[in-house]
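To whoever picks this up:

The parser on our side crashed when reading a file containing two proteins. I've narrowed it down to the boundary between the first structure block and the second sequence. Both blocks are reproduced below exactly, byte for byte. First block:
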Amino acid sequence: MSSPTPRVAGRIASLDGLRGLAATIVLLHHWLLIARPLLEGSLSWAIISQSPVKLLTAGNEAVLVFFVLSGLVVVLPVFRPGFSWMGFLSARIVRLYGPVIAALALSVALIYLVPRDRSTMPEGSWMAETHATEVTWQSFLFQASLVPRQYPLNNPLWSLHWELLYSILLPFATALALLVRRWALTAVIVCCAISLVGRVFEQSELLYFPIFLIGTIMAARMPDLLAWVERPRARWFMPTFAAASVVMLIASWLARPIAPSGSELSHVLWALAAPGAAGIVVVSLAWAPAIRFLETRPLQWLGKISFSLYLVHVPVLATLAFALGSDQWPLIGIIGIPLSLLVAWAFYQAVEARIHQAARRVHRAVAARANRRAGEVAP
């Protein structure tokens, strides 16, 4: 089966902006987790968590958008002439592990700088249950491996565990996406159903891999997707499509009054987040107002530092929470949100950008070596 040739050259600016927006939502989500024990049960909490306002702090759902984006954007170079799997996988490992190790080092430094005492945090809270108060070499190295599923030194690294595994499986996922691309819509529906099964039975592999695969199927049908994007249609269609995608993304939150967390209906509604995330990616490619918004300078800047922001914001917020107390959550937000952006920019300049350069060199060297060996073996 022949591979598609996408009509996309270089980076897609609107998707960069979407990545920056998603990273900012994750930042706000974790700030809200600090405030949650003090707000839960109040009218303010109901407005924040059970209305469209939830979109601003839907951190877990924003990660699903990241997964769809990874499945889409990471696989696009596969369809370009001269692509090297060995070069790609080598560079991908450098791009993931380099910033992760640096972010963990930052976390360790902040833990030593500001001692942590779980007893100062509300019992059962995110701050009390998920953050390390001490560091050992064993814990550092284990979490730096991206093998575990929980990361007390830096919570958001859990998603990098799945990014790494999907990168390893990408050759198989790409082949599967090419096999089913003629039935792409049906395949996406099957992916959503498998993800629902993973959610109900708490099987993370079934929950997350299909969401990555949705993005890869989109990449395999990129020419058709772009043709669909460019097709003339009624003015009301894209606003309605965008609104439907947002509603699906946060449907389980909007329905909390009638579908409590953990209920079967809540699981079903949460499964809508996967097609909702895919729909938002399509909106970012197709709807002119969304594209203009995502291509504004602030969102392009956020997109540029999005990975760094994702890696450093929890250590910054957690350190402030232990230093000031979680009851000072408004002050933590006032200080921590801009400070996270500042640290992310510095981290991007000092770490991520340099590692990207190293990854490109690794890609060129490994790809050239692989091509030479292939030439020696060929008859």
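<<boundary where parser fails>>
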Amino acid sequence: MIVELPDTNTTAISKELIKVRDSGGAFTSGRVLTLLVSTYEGEPAEAAIEAANEASREHPCRVIVVSRADRNGPSRLDAQIRVGGDAGASEVVVLHLFGDLVDHGKSVVIPFMLPDTPVVTWWPGHGPVNPAADPIGQLGKRRITDSTKATDVAATLAQRLATYSPGDSDIAWSRITVWRALLTSALDQPPHSPITDVEVSGPADLAAVELLAGWLHSALGVPVTRSVGSFQVTVNRESGPLVLCVGMGNQAIISIPGKPDGKVALPDRELRSCLAEELRRLDPDETYHLALQGISGLTRAEDKIHA
């Protein structure tokens, strides 16, 4: 069910939420957090709502979407309340801000935040320069950006490091969880010979690959070369290289000298899966911070294409 509230105010929206709740359309007692979704005109607000709805099946929450539109016109607040089949296991409040209200999103959302629940702020489009200092970001215990949307990935990740505050995270980081788990598991297997260096190859300007390379540099403490090409991670050891790449049928292939290749089916890492993973933890992600720090120490190879 979707309730439209054009040209409204926060009091009218709050009354409508109570009315919907009293009629049995939504219950807040089981909500475990408030998810603030901050978007600007032209950014994928509907795709973000859909991902939040799916993630809410694992993490029941109230989703508050702040959608900033035209700041040049008169001030106006249009709202939607979505419950039931249109909201997954959550209830969604969509706030379209116009005119001067565009700069006052924090004041508009505060009346709708659930009391005594943690708050997570998510920017599904282009995030702010400093998430922790952003007015809506200040409300969140966790702040999730998405550097895959950046036009200049290197500059964006450098800025994320410069402004890092405990609680910051990135959808691009969640996209490589499976890869990190595979590499960790493979390196736990014998032979446990010393690692000399690592090469990470992948498409240029792909934030997930940059973060993977940075994580390996920080975690292993060895030289890591970032090259451009098809995706492949080569961990050079005295006993021979361990190679992780993608084969036919979206399978991860792990090659270790003297052993048959291991093949693992890769699950889809859709936006909703990455968001659900981010919502599982509300404590600071120190490993993400280490990955950001490791990027500055990477060696950049000349562009080359792996066969």
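After patching the parser it read the second block fine. DSSP finds nine helices and 15 strands in the chain. Residues 303-307 have pLDDT under 50 and may be disordered.
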